[in-house]
Amino acid sequence: MKAIVLHQYGGPDELTLQDLPDPKVAPGEVLVRVKAASVNPVDWKIGAGHLDAMMETHFPLIPGWDVAGVVEAVGLDVQEYAVGDEVIGYARKDNVQLGTYAELVAANVRLLAPKPAALDWTQAAGLPLAGLTAYQSLKRLGVGPGDTVLVHAAAGGVGSLGVQIARALGARVIGTASERNHDFLRDLGAEPVTYGDGLADRVRELAPDGVDAAVDYVGGDAVEVSTRVVRTPDRIASIADPGVEEVGGRYMWVRPSSADLTELGRMADDGRLTVHIDRVYPLAEAAEAWRVSQEGRTRGKLALSVD
């Protein structure tokens, strides 16, 4: 199979496209013929070695945890899927090495869910990691009908899904973004506010009594601003700032969950959730996709077309 490979820690310039042996398929796993993969900031952060102290990493390394594709073979004792089934997955394994920037990937069934019919291949590939991150952070805060939620970085990959999921859960959403993304947020169902100096005051103009919950998908001063507008700090969650725990909030890392991913697929098929794809690159241009992701200005998601 062809795959994007790193032979040592490095940046986009160290990514190469090469031929590797097809993955082995263990009991409880299926082999997926990849149609599309998604690019997430964690991919290039792992590639640069930023998570070396946390995650066991082996080379040669194929990046990527998001996948959408077709089951090509099933391993021993797999009951959930058959050859030809269309699936999506947050294919994060215990060790970082055999990722999804490839023509084939083996994944345990607990990492997979049926592909939503309402999404094309690139949209489907953009759903797992970002969608699970948003869904799990909002559910952990108990977001539901009647809540007002502040979503930081609401136009990004996680944020744009977080806006829609919070709305699907019955909440009112205030989302931070640059002015160029305000119409985009309105289309998603959020009330936009411009980030930067004075953000807390702008949020208070929309919610004079404060917000019920806040989710930080960007870092920076988002947690500090949240403490000034949220009613109780235990309803602040961050995926970017461990300091949130010092104010009584929750620092989160997304977990694989077939059940949660299946629920996100239902939201997509019910018309409550879509995935905005900013740009699509062929697999061979993964390095350029990393460069764009590192700029931090993507609206929605970046995807790799592998088909």
TrEMBL record:
* Keywords noted in UniProt: Cytoplasm, NADP, Oxidoreductase, RNA-binding
Query: Where is the protein localized?
Result: Cytoplasm
What Gene Ontology terms describe what this protein does at the molecular function level?
oxidoreductase activity
The main location is cytoplasm
Gene3D superfamilies assigned to the protein according to its UniProt record, in alphabetical order: Medium-chain alcohol dehydrogenases, catalytic domain, NAD(P)-binding Rossmann-like Domain
**Any Pfam family hit:** ADH_N
What CDD domains would the database entry show?
A: MDR_like_2
Kindly indicate whether the keyword NADP belongs to this entry.
yes
The protein's Enzyme Commission number: 1.-.-.-
The Enoyl reductase (ER) domain, residue ranges: 10-304
Q: Which PANTHER family match?
A: QUINONE OXIDOREDUCTASE (PTHR44154:SF1)
What does the record note on quaternary structure? Homotetramer.
Name of the protein this chain belongs to: NADP-dependent oxidoreductase
Q: What is the native source organism of this protein? A: Prauserella oleivorans
